[in-house]
Amino acid sequence: MSITATTQQQRQLLDLQSLDSQLTRLRTQLNQLREDAQLAELRKTGATAVEQAKAVQAHVDERQSVAQQAEQAVAETTKRRDTHQARLDADGVSPRDVQAVTTEIAELTIRIEDLENAQVEAMQALETAQAEFDAAQAAISEAEQAVNVRITTINEQGQQLSKQGKELTVERAALADTLPADLVAEYEQIRDANHGVGVIELTSQGLSGAGVPIAPAELAEIKKLPADELAYCPDTGAILARTELAQHDA
Question: Are 122 and 18 in contact (CB under 8 A)?
């Protein structure tokens, strides 16, 4: 027994197809949000910033060690010179060793100047490395903020799409309930097998949905069918809603 549908039901079937198409688009948009390319790129940027910060941190640690060693060298050399000077000032050096101690004090003083210059350079290098690390940390914070902003945007868009999806689902269920169950089942079966297209409208010029005209002989056979008997597209297998043909024939 063939499935029948009044002209009104065929028109409603087109409305059902429109709702299903909108729901499909919403699901696609939701999937795109879940796999958001912009968010992935922002997270990649954040990961790169973290790796850069780790590398700069190692550089800072190295410079910190060099600066500490330079400071220690200055302190130890200064202490040694000051000890000799104190002995000399307190006449604690034998007359025959005065010249040697005096010479060593002079050499240590020159050595201290060199070490202090090296310490200054080490401190400057440390400051430069620390500034690079601060910039790397700022880049991490900026990347994290960008990720959080994008996530917030995605969540808001997702909530909006989900709300629209729920509304369309309710509307779709209400519309489907007004149609014969066998008609809806036929439409859904064809739609599942036909890339989401279960029904298209047949106009006097051809297919409005597919845009492909039906051969004159096939169109003539379709026109011979009773108005409430389902017709099918010879190319896609989709149900043909003959609403405009019915009006034209009337």
Answer: no
**What are all long-range contacts of 140-148, with beta carbons under 8 Å and residues at least 24 apart?**
140/46, 140/49, 140/50, 140/53, 142/49, 143/42, 143/45, 143/46, 143/49, 144/46, 146/42, 146/45, 146/46, 147/39, 147/42, 147/43, 147/46
HSE, side-chain direction, 13 A CA sphere, residue 80? 16
pTM: predicted TM-score of the whole model, two decimal places: 0.69
Are the CB atoms for 123 and 67 separated by under 8 Å?
yes
Q: Which whole number is the average pLDDT over 140-167?
A: 96
DSSP state of 152: H
Quote the tokens at residue 132. Answer: 């690079």
Could you tell me whether strands 239-241 and 199-201 are parallel, antiparallel, or unpaired per DSSP bridges?
A: parallel
Tokens for 176?
């489907």
SS3 202: strand
Q: What is the pLDDT of residues 104-142, one digit of tens each?
A: 889 999 999 999 999 999 999 999 999 999 999 999 999
